[in-house]
UniProtKB/TrEMBL annotation:
Transmembrane region(s): none
Origin species: Iodobacter arcticus
Keyword tags: DNA-binding, Transcription, Transcription regulation
Domain named HTH merR-type: residues: 1-68
Coiled-coil intervals: none
InterPro entries the UniProt entry points to: DNA-bd_dom_put_sf, MerR-type_HTH_dom, MerR_fam
PANTHER family the UniProt entry points to: HEAVY METAL-DEPENDENT TRANSCRIPTIONAL REGULATOR HI_0293-RELATED (PTHR30204:SF94), REDOX-CYCLING DRUG-SENSING TRANSCRIPTIONAL ACTIVATOR SOXR (PTHR30204)
Name of the protein this chain belongs to: MerR family transcriptional regulator
C-alpha cells in the first residue's frame, strides 16, 4: 500500500509517516520506483507509535522500534511502560502535596480576621 492508504488506516498524516521513517521507527520501507510501499506490519507499528504518543511518550523514547525487521523489543517496551507508570505515580504524589498545601492556605486565609472584615464590607 502507498502512503495515502497508510495514512487513512492509521490517522497519521503522510508528513508524520515520513518523519517516523526518517527517525528509523518504521525500519526499512520498501520502494517501488519513487514510491514508498508499506506493509501490514507498518500499519501495526504506526498504530503503536500513535498510541504511545497519546499516552505521553516522546518519539525519542520509542527507540526500541528502530531497526526491527520482525518484531519490536517487547521486553524493552514493558520496561518503558513501567518507567512511565513510576513517573506518573511520582507526579500524582507531587500534585497531591500541592493540593494539600493549597487547601491549608485556603483555610488559613478563611480564618484571617482581616479577610472576614473585608468580606463583610463587600457584602453590605
Amino acid at each position: 500500500m502507498y502512503i495515502g492508504e497508510l495514512a487513512k488506516l492509521t490517522g497519521a498524516s503522510p508528513k508524520a509517516i515520513r518523519h517516523y521513517e526518517t527517525l528509523g521507527l518504521l525500519g526499512a520501507v520498501q520502494r517501488s520506483g519513487a514510491y514508498r510501499v508499506y506493509a501490514d506490519r507498518d500499519v501495526l507499528l504506526l498504530r503503536l507509535i500513535r498510541q504511545a504518543q497519546g499516552l505521553g511518550f516522546k518519539l525519542s523514547e520509542l527507540h526500541f522500534l528502530k531497526n526491527t525487521q520482525s518484531q519490536p523489543d517487547w521486553q524493552q517496551l514493558k520496561r518503558l511502560l513501567a518507567s512511565k507508570r513510576l513517573s506518573i505515580a511520582n507526579e500524582i504524589k507531587h500534585l497531591e502535596q500541592l493540593d494539600s498545601q493549597l487547601a491549608a492556605l485556603s483555610l488559613e486565609i478563611s480564618a484571617c480576621p482581616e479577610v472576614q472584615a473585608s468580606l463583610a464590607a463587600c457584602i453590605a
